[in-house]
């Protein structure tokens, strides 16, 4: 299942999922407890990987810019989409400065409608 919005509560309302979810989570609140615990309290191995990545790639940065990628038409494989994105970011020099103008050029480069 691919979805780009939060949908856990809706799964309890979907007949095909209801029986299995009720068996796994007799109390609906437990579903959110377990999901939250999994997402917000990762295992030690996962936490080590996250902190190691942060120290290596992000800790020394004076400025961070996040780019969210959503692919609605799956004509191109994910690797090709990533390569196109990185090419545009480098070509428009969005990784060295952040302005409204640079983001507009990035949108045009990626052929994104805003």
Question: Could you explain how this protein is built, in words?
Answer:
The protein has 114 residues and is mostly helical. It has a domain of 50 residues. 58% of the residues lie in helices and 0% in strands. It starts with 7 loop residues before the first helix and ends with a helix. The mean pLDDT is 71.
Which descriptors would you attach to this protein?
6 helices
Number of extended strands: 0
Q: What structural category do the secondary elements indicate? A: mainly alpha
Radius of gyration: 20 Å
Compressed to H and E, one letter per element, the order equals: HHHHHH
* Approximate shape: flat
Proportion of helical residues = 55-70%
Multimerization state: single chain
- Our estimate of the beta-strand percent is under 5%
Task: Give the rounded overall mean pLDDT.
Answer: 71
- Describe the sheet with the most strands: none
Low-confidence stretches: none
Short characterization:
It is found in: Golgi apparatus, Golgi stack membrane. The chain has 114 residues and is an all-alpha fold.
Question: What is the topological layout?
Answer:
Elements: H1 8-11, H2 15-24, H3 28-40, H4 44-57, H5 78-91, H6 100-110
Protein name: Fucosyltransferase
Pfam families: XG_FTase
Keywords: Cell wall biogenesis/degradation, Glycoprotein, Glycosyltransferase, Golgi apparatus, Transferase
């Amino acid at each position: 299942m691919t979805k780009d919005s939060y949908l856990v509560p809706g799964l309890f309302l979907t007949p095909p999922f209801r029986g299995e979810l009720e068996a796994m989570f007799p109390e609906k609140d437990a579903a959110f407890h377990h999901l939250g615990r999994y997402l917000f309290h990762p295992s030690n191995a996962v936490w080590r990987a996250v902190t190691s990545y942060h120290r290596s790639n992000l800790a020394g940065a004076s400025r961070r810019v996040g780019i969210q990628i959503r692919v609605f038409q799956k004509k191109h494989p994910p690797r090709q989409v990533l390569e196109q994105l990185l090419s545009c970011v480098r070509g428009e020099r969005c990784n060295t400065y952040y302005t409204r103008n640079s983001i507009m050029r990035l949108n045009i480069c990626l052929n994104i409608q805003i």
